[in-house]
Amino acid sequence: MSHFSCEDEALLQSMLRQLLQSVKEKITGAPSVECAEEILLHLEETDENFHNYEFVKYLRQYICSTLGSVIEEETEKCTSAQSQGEGSGYDTLVQHVTKKTRESKEYREMMHSLKNVMMVVVESLINKFEEDQMRNKEMHRKTKKEQHSAYHTDNCSDSDSSYNQSYTFLNQEQLQLLVERLDPAQPKEVRQEAMQTLCSAPPSDVLNCESWSNLRKHLTMSLSDPDSTFSDKILRFYAKTFSSSPLNMTREVYTSLAKHLELYFLSGENCIPTISDGIDITNPEIIRLLKKVRLLNEYQREVPSFWIRHPEKYMEEIVESTLLLLSVKREQRHLVSPKLLDPVYFLALLDIKAVWFKKWMHANYSRTVVLRLLEKKYKSLVSLYLWLPYSAWNLFPFCNYSPAILVTEVLQILCDRTECATDCLYTNTVIDALLHPIHNLLNGTEMYINCPETSLIHIADILARIAAVEDGLSLLLYGGNMNTAKKDSLTAAHTIVQFTKKLLDENISVLSGTEMLPALKGAFIFVCRQMYGTCEGLQVLIPYGLHESIADAWKKASSLSERIPTPVPGTDSISSGNQESQNIMVWEETLLDDLLNFAATPKGLLLLQNTGALNECVTFMFSRFSKKLQVRMSVFGYGIMVTQMAATSPGAVALQRSGFIKALITELWAVLECGRDDLRVTHPSSTPVDPIDRSCQKSFLAVVNLLSYPAIYELIGDQEIPNKPEYSLREVPTNVADVIDRLIILNSDAKIHSLFNYEQSHIFGLRLLNVLCCDLDTLLLLESQYKLSQVLLNAQKENIIETSEGPGNVIIDGLSVERNHILVRINLTGGPAERILPQRVLNKGTDPYPWSMFSSYPLPRCYLSEAPRKADFRQGTKYIKSSDSKQTFYFHIPFIAANVLMGFLLITVLAELIEKFVLHLSENPSECYFSTGEYEAANANVKNESLSSVQQLGIKMTVRYGKYLHLLKDDAENDLCLVLMHCDKFLKQQQTSMKSSLRCLQEGYAGYDWFASSVFLIMSGEREKTLTFLQQFSSLLLSAFLWLRRLHVSVHLPIDTAESGIHPIYFCSAHYIEMLLKAELPLVFSAFHMSGFTPSQICQQWLAQCFWNYLDWSEICHYIATCIFLGPDYQIYMCISVFKHLQQDILQHTQTQDLQVFLKVIFLFLLIGFRVTNIYGFYSSGFKVFICSTHCKFTVLPRYLK
Fold first, then answer.
1. With helix as H, strand as E and coil as C, how does 890-902 read?
2. Which terminus of the chain faces fewer neighbouring Cβ atoms within 10 Å, N or C?
């Protein structure tokens, strides 16, 4: 096209006219310019005559002549490459040639030339069009009137297309004259003619003219013209502008329309309908108003799709003009005048679901601007939306869509967006508005609502969503400020739970007898459930006894469901009677689900156990678990609740009775030994690389979560393993004892031959055993019942190579390495610096396993750390010398505590100090919380007493550890036996007798007394000192938490708490640990939640065994002394400081999905750098303030004691 003549230009004009004329009908039907462009871009796909158009033929010929040689050259190159095996088919050839052609110099030159030519052609067409318009001006006016009557049936629509009408192009002088003629002061005929000309002009020319600001004012005022034809023409011009102009132009048109509506509603001359009268859509004035609001709303819906491409100030103008319009309120002339309808009502009528608002709040770009303006200038709009449900019941009698549903959906949108909810919803003003009808019902105030049940259900839905988020929950519980919340002030949570209890008691006359009452009850119970499912929420709700009310309602529903007759085949299944019975069963299950969620926290589990509905709740949970049904509004299912239950004896028994444990073990066996039959045939499983294959990891962690010591004791206590002479290959384990028999204690060929994957399955069992043995009570139980050490030693002997010279070395393989690690672990006691554990991995090189294997005791010396030197008795005696004066001793307590916290005092000094301190406390009647009675610790009194095998093994372990620490002499074992027997006899005097199906309540204390053993070591094995100290200590409230055996079935506990089988260390200490962890280390708390594991279970294990095997002896002593001097709440700080120390490792192991194993086994090696003095940092940073402000201080225990 380098030689482009006039003939060529005329020819191209003719071809282009032919193309546009042929597609005129398709373009005319397009709703907007953008759609018309899309039609042209996809014309080849939709028009079968596309390749017959002369313009298309011309372009094809031009491209071939220009790029033909380039295409041929690239094709030859690719063809030769394919013949040499470098290509990969026809599709690749086409793609490659196309790419190279478009990158060529010829292509760029062609596109540049073609663009220049087409610009000339199009410009010529436009100029010729203007000439034609000027010559036929009069004729054009008449024709245009006919076109408007034919094309524009809906004058307010913004769907007009620029292709179905003619344009009149005006210069600046003509536009200036047009603006003058549109002045409202001009005669009507002049304005009508000027408006006609304006509608035929291109909107872009009008909006870019120098007089646009004056024209805009004239148009805004003219929209109120009483002549509807004239105002409709303005709306048509606005609609055309919206559909064909960019944002920088349309924003001014939109703000003009919004300003007109604002003035309309503020004007006293216009007749605005009232709420009581409703809207008459046959009124011409109302029709005109609705047309304007509709055009405004249609632009609101479309503008979010392209305002991000323009400066933010444009969007701010649109948003602010909208909010200003919606906030308009005309002053009432009389105080008793009916409320007039505001703009928001008309907008809600035309956009029932507030689609425009959803789009504005969808993206952060616009949402930020909306929220900022709402907060700074238009807060009243938020209250207006909350008030709508109570004021608009009679607003739209012709509309089936409830305004309450509209408002609920808008609030739901805000709730689902954290940023929006924080700024708009989490305020006392909003909560007060939501609770207003509830306050009225509680106070007996009359309510003017047609359907209060529906309205209250909507309120409950929003409150539940608020309570599901941390900030919202804090607002409901503490009124927005936890630290300044007063004890006597009733926050939203108190109002909600009071209302819920009244609903359950059916003590609200307005709502009694309604069909929707069960749904209303369920909605508000669910709000409470969002609160009592957290530790802090349960603390607030406990005084109201909501668990008892829900349990009573469940028992009532259960008794009704039992009366339902069995369905008879052939009867009508949809009769009213059957429907009623189904409703009763659904209500019963709903209440069970609500009760079940108390098990989400340690203290909540105790409350659930006290209701007597624990077994039914677990059975219900298992039925839903079996059907793969998700927990309502819970991402992580039932994992947390199962782990909480498994940490207690009644919970473990309930899990077993429900069939949950059987199902879990069956699933474990399926993935470990069987696998899916269809997959094994088509995809044989690969040889596992990890000790526990990834396919088994989930089942492994589920079993670890389940087998806490209370669960182990209930499930296998005094139970022998089968040890059968023969096992069928199809025989599947169904309980924990079977798992131990088939996977851990493989002491016969029959067991080995019964496994398809012997090595993998046995390693799985040994890894599980390694985790279980980290709980010292579990270790002692397994050792006493199954002689675990001997089984492992025998297996190592069988793995020894026999040589001509005699027994050789143990064969090093995966199983022998695992057994060696476990044998060292279970026979060495101590913290990370006091024992050496062999690794469980093989190294590369000539010496893959540098650790010594053994098949008999004693342990090789390579596993024994250097024993600490005996403590120096000469230091720290200045505090002990003050014992002659109680007042002087108490004066030194703060200094003693500070030195304990900082780790400055030696162990021997600590022993003397805690002895003096406990003596002084026990002599003070106000400090003696428990009455202990008289007991004479004479050895003759315990002649007939006997110790269990678990206690005997624990004594041996304690003495072995004490000798390693140089604290005990050779005859210490007998003294420790006497101490434990005296303690047993002494504490039995304060125990109540009871009949229970729980094993832990049928005999003595289930575990070993680690606290008494720790005191025995602190006292360097002195029997009399130890007994005296324990007797004095037992009178203090502190003993309830440090000495677990102290409150076993104790008369000092309420009978239902004693019968529950749940220790205060769990429902009190562990409960507050979870509560404090969530507040201070939210990432760690979330990590536990995502792992399906609970801080309470692992902390119960740590505290029960006094951190034995997790901390070195010096740190254990400092932990005990700190709690004695400063109070039992320091055992909470202790656990929190451990979590703080391990925070990064906890987050990492959450990602690798082995957090449970890490906390029980691995992290021992990471505690080498941990010191009890770390608590001091937490104490000084405000932990004590938090505990006191949220009433978590351990002085709350008396409510659980007599």
1. HHHHHHHHHHHHH
2. C
